[in-house]
C-alpha cells in the first residue's frame, strides 16, 4: 500500500499539466501513487499524461465520463490505495516536500486531516495566502469542539492530506451534480465537521494558479450550484444531529458568505434568479428560527429585494433592447436626461454626442453651487416632471449604485428610463 494516493482531475489543461505532474512525481516522498482522472481531454492533455505514465510507473490514467468535477474525484477516491489521499488540481503545482511534510504531521499526531496554507500563483509570481490565520498551528484540534470557525476558511481542499480509511468510514465524498462548479465546498465542510483529529500547518506548499481563465470558479453563471452544495452539507448533518447542533450556526454563516461571493461573480443580468433563491433560503431560515445574525446575513437581507427589482428591470431592458435597439429608444424620446454627474455620465454623454444626441441636462439628487457640467445644465431630479410623456432618463452611475438610483426614479414616478449598466455601456463603446 503506497503512503499517499495523489488525485489529479484533468480536462483540457495542456498548458499546465506537465508542470503539475512533474511537481508531484518529483516529491521527496517517493512512496506514492498518482491517479490522473481525465474527463476526455481534447487539447493534448491525454497525450502528456500517457507520455509521463510510460516514464514513471507510479502514474496511472483513469478515464472518466465528462460529468462533473465531483464525479471525477469520487472515481479517484474509489481507485485509491494509499494510507492518505492528497489532491493536486492539474493547473496547480506543489513544492517538492509537500507530501513528506504533511504526512509526517499526520503520522505524528495520528490525524485524520492535515491542512496547510497555500501560495496564490499569478503570472509567474507567488503570494502567501494565510487562509488559516487566527487558528492554532501544530496542535491536535477537533473543529466541532475547539474551533468551529475553522469551517469558514476557504475550501482549498488541495492544501491538505486526508486519511483514506477515515474518509470512507465517515462517508465524506463529493457531490456529483452534472456540469456543476463549487463542488469542493461541501467536501471541505463535511471533512472538517466530521473530523475529531485535525492539525494545521502554517507553511504553504501548493501553488494555486489564479491566471487560468478556464477555471470553473470563474464561471459566475454556476453560482446557483452553491444551493446544492449546502443542501448536501445539511443532509450530512441530519445523520449526525449532535454535530448539527454544534456547527449549524457557523455553517449557516459560511453559506451566507458564499452566497455573497457567488453573487459578486454573476453578471448583473444573471443575478435575479440567484437572488430570488437566496431570499427564499433566508426566509426559510428565519421561519425555522435559524437566522444567523452575521454581517453577511444582514447584507443579504438588506440588499436582496432591491437587487431583485433592479435585475428584473435589467432583464426586461435587455429583451427590449434586442427588439428595438438602444438608439431607437433615444430617437423616440422628446427629451433625454442623464441621471448622474460623474465619470459614467460623462462617458455616456460623449457616446451620445457621436450619434448626434444632446442630453437636456444632468440630474443629481441635490444641487449645490455648480449649475452645469461640460456646458450642460445640472438639475435636481426631484424638481423636474420626470413622469411626463417623451422624457427618457438614462441612469448613468456605477452598477453598485444602480439599485439606489432606480429606486429614486420610481419614487419620482419616472417610468421611462434605461439603466446604463456596465454591459450595456461596453456594448455601446461608452466604457
Plain-language structure description:
- The protein is 44% helix and 19% strand.
- It has 431 residues and is an alpha/beta fold.
- The radius of gyration is 26 Å and the shape is elongated.
- The model has no long low-confidence stretch (mean pLDDT 86).
SSE map:
Elements: E1 4-10, H1 14-25, E2 32-38, H2 45-55, E3 59-63, H3 69-79, E4 84-87, E5 93-94, H4 98-109, E6 113-122, E7 125-129, H5 143-146, E8 160-163, H6 164-170, H7 183-194, E9 198-209, H8 225-238, H9 241-264, H10 271-287, H11 295-324, H12 326-331, E10 335-339, H13 343-354, E11 361-364, E12 372-373, E13 376-380, E14 391-395, H14 402-411, E15 417-419, H15 422-428
Parallel strand pairs: 1-2, 1-4, 2-3, 6-9, 10-11, 10-14, 11-13, 14-15
Antiparallel strand pairs: 4-8, 5-9, 6-7, 6-8, 12-13
Helix pairs in contact: 1-2, 7-8, 8-9, 10-11, 11-14
Amino acid at each position: 500500500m503506497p503512503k499517499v494516493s495523489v488525485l489529479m482531475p484533468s480536462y483540457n489543461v495542456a498548458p499546465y499539466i506537465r508542470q503539475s505532474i512533474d511537481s508531484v512525481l518529483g516529491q521527496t516522498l517517493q512512496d506514492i501513487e498518482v491517479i490522473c482522472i481525465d474527463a476526455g481531454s481534447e487539447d493534448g492533455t491525454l497525450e502528456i499524461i500517457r507520455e509521463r505514465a510510460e516514464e514513471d510507473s507510479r502514474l496511472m490514467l483513469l478515464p472518466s465520463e465528462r460529468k462533473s468535477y465531483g464525479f471525477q474525484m469520487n472515481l479517484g477516491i474509489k481507485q485509491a490505495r494509499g494510507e492518505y489521499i492528497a489532491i493536486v488540481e492539474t493547473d496547480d503545482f506543489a513544492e517538492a516536500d509537500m507530501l513528506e511534510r504533511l504526512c509526517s504531521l499526520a503520522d505524528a499526531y495520528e490525524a485524520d486531516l492535515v491542512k496547510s496554507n497555500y501560495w496564490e500563483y499569478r503570472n509567474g509570481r507567488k503570494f502567501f495566502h494565510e487562509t488559516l490565520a487566527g487558528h492554532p498551528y501544530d496542535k491536535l484540534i477537533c473543529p466541532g469542539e475547539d474551533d468551529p470557525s475553522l469551517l469558514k476558511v476557504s475550501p482549498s481542499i488541495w492544501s491538505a492530506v486526508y486519511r483514506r480509511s477515515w474518509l470512507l468510514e465517515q462517508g465524506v465524498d463529493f457531490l456529483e451534480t452534472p456540469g456543476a462548479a463549487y463542488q469542493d465546498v461541501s467536501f471541505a465542510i463535511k471533512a472538517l465537521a466530521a473530523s475529531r483529529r485535525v492539525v494545521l500547518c502554517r507553511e504553504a506548499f501548493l501553488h494555486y494558479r489564479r491566471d487560468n481563465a478556464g477555471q470553473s470558479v470563474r464561471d459566475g453563471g454556476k453560482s446557483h450550484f452553491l444551493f446544492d452544495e449546502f443542501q448536501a452539507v445539511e443532509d450530512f448533518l441530519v445523520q449526525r444531529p449532535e454535530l448539527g447542533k454544534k456547527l449549524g450556526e457557523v455553517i449557516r454563516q459560511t453559506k451566507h458568505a458564499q452566497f455573497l461571493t457567488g453573487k459578486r461573480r454573476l453578471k448583473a443580468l444573471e443575478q435575479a434568479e440567484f437572488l430570488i433563491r437566496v431570499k427564499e433560503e433566508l426566509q426559510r431560515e428565519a421561519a425555522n428560527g435559524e437566522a444567523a445574525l452575521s454581517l453577511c446575513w444582514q447584507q443579504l437581507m438588506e440588499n436582496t429585494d432591491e437587487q431583485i427589482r433592479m435585475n428584473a428591470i435589467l432583464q426586461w431592458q435587455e429583451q427590449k433592447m434586442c427588439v428595438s435597439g438602444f438608439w431607437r429608444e433615444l430617437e423616440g424620446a422628446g427629451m433625454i436626461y442623464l441621471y448622474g454627474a460623474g465619470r459614467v455620465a460623462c462617458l455616456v454623454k460623449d457616446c451620445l454626442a457621436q450619434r448626434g444626441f444632446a442630453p437636456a441636462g444632468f440630474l443629481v439628487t441635490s444641487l449645490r453651487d455648480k449649475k452645469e457640467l461640460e456646458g450642460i445644465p445640472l438639475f435636481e431630479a426631484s424638481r423636474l416632471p420626470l413622469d411626463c410623456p417623451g422624457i427618457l432618463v438614462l441612469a448613468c452611475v456605477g452598477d453598485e449604485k444602480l439599485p439606489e438610483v432606480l429606486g429614486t426614479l420610481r419614487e419620482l414616478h419616472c417610468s421611462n428610463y434605461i439603466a446604463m449598466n456596465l454591459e450595456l455601456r461596453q456594448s455601446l463603446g461608452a466604457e
